[in-house]
Prior knowledge:
Elements: H1 2-5, H2 18-30, E1 38-40, H3 46-51, E2 55-56, E3 78-90, E4 116-119, H4 123-133, H5 135-146, E5 151-153, H6 157-164, E6 170-174, H7 175-183, E7 188-191, E8 196-206, H8 212-223, H9 225-233, E9 256-259, H10 267-277
Parallel strand pairs: 4-5, 4-6, 8-9
Antiparallel strand pairs: 1-8, 2-8, 3-6, 3-7, 3-8
Amino acid sequence: RFQKKYPFIKLELVRSGTGPLLNRILNETRAGRHSWDVVTGSAEMYLPLVERKLIAPYSSPETKMYDNDMKDKEGYWTTLYANPIVLGFNTRLVRKEEAPRTYEDLLDPRWRGGKISIDTEGFALLSGLIEAWGMEKAVAYFRKLAAKDPVLKRGNTERVQLATAGEYPLVIAFAAQVEGMVQKKAPMDWVPLEPVVVRLNPIMMAANASHPNSAKLFIDFALSKEGQEIIRDSFRIPVRNDVDPNPPRLLRGYKRVIETPESYVSFPETVKLYQEIFKLR
Length: 281
């Protein structure tokens, strides 16, 4: 859509996971190459890039339509789309009125013994609840949750699919994945446990961009109403104020705690703590 609007600009897309993409950028930098103009991905990319002065501030005029917690006040990043972490449940195994409504509800004895699916790399949930509750309360809660003997498995999409198939009744996962099953009329629904931890996927501009003006134009387009409608129609969760997710409850109507890119300063310690709690090391 961007190229149709601006045919004089030719895009080259490199798609990869966060770790490989960050490594590629850093390896190119060490070799004296600056091959990229714009990057978007997990918020955990931000600190390694900003510490090495590899991203430049750019405050797009479109950011006026974004809440303050969805953008950097100095313009280093703006959220392209969000990933709220919610509780999905299989409606054939759990009646809607019986589904847990709070984090405390998950500690009920009925959910003991392989009833809850948790991501082996769900570090953001711990990090977000530490921010919301404080270290002592969050860690104590997670130790109680680990004692329920949850099903530990990597990834969101596959775990939601397994919950849909009835492998387990509850799954803590990204809202977009669960809602995707809901919209396919699968036996799934979800509950926003408050505060909902929301991971951000920011968009950022390279400090050494070869095409800085084109980069700014692309960021403007991605953050525009048209760009965010494309995000929504791609089954992602837009955050622009005049573009509702589908359905709006994916981002509206609940208390949230935002995992900002800056919050990843203590991320390595959170990872170690999470792995220790769930005995993943």
